[in-house]
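Proteins fold reproducibly. Take a sample protein:
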Amino acid sequence: MWEADLQKFAREHLLREISVLDSPAGPFMALDGRMTLQFASNNYLGLANHPEVKHAAQKAIEEFGVGAGASRLISGTSSPHHDLELALAHFTNSEAALTFSSGYATNLGVIPQLTKPGGLILADRLCHASLIDACRLSRATLRVFRHNDLEHVQALLTKRPTNQPTLLVTEGVFSMDGDLAPLKELARLAEEFEALLLVDDAHGTGVMGPTGRGSLEQWGIESDNVFHMGTLSKALGTSGGFIAGTKDFITYLINTSRSFIYSTAPPPAIAAAAQAAIHLIQQEPERRTRLWNNREKMNQGLTAMGYQLTKTQSPILPIIVKDTELAMKMSQLLREKGMYIPAIRPPTVPKGTSRLRITVTAEHSLEQIETALVAIKQIGQFLKII
């Protein structure tokens, strides 16, 4: 019953396959029997394989075992989960925080509790799928505004019925374009129109801001009406998601959020590892310095070659190729040269915007970036993209 769809995906160069790796997250990956230099990971600060992070997980396994056993409201909360949430609250300058099994589960569990049926949600057109799914799950009226278009947001707010509860939804750093949301202005509009603002900061947590606290720190935003959602799976190098806010709001979520209430707690070892990662982010700011230096070198090199990039302001550097088949061809040729850079295609991105999504990390050396730039230039010239 699925054959026709799979054949259609293949014809349109949209069929996805899973690559099996035999190595940890890092600049190199063991792929197809060879070591391949990779620029696809969201492990921005190189913490996924850090000795202290691994040691924290190993120690927690010895003390608490592997699985949590049940949901936290059924069998209680292990001290690693409790301690992680205290650390996240401190890290985000919030009163409290709550962790979930994934960033996806966080959005599904939080957004329906920030609005109700009959309410209004305004979401950026390029929001992550988990945000859109959560908005639909809320049964509120969903309106999508043009990407980062403040005039469109204001127009939609002005047209809404009087006193209609409203939630604005955006990413802090957009995962496929690498650009930033105008959070200062969105927060101002939210305050002016008495709306709430949820910021999915999956790609900003640990990366953006003077101390890595994320996009809200980057823009100097502090408000009880602005909610900071983040993940533990990117710059923190572990797994899971979290929401930060007031104590009352977190208590409300504990009592109402379905993806929290009805999910087995994440392994205590993951919580312990994430807390160790938070400590490293605060104690080793040089990791962010290396990350941004690497980002600038890659960005300058790609721009000098004449590639069309998005308006990226982050370590996510997408090369716009437009044509899906051409993007796949470019990715495959780079892979044959020992370089892993994935082609991103619809429906992940809009039609006609297929791209190679390059991400740099603090672990990449300048020599590795130079090697990548040489290969990207050669393939781009061969395919007549530049």
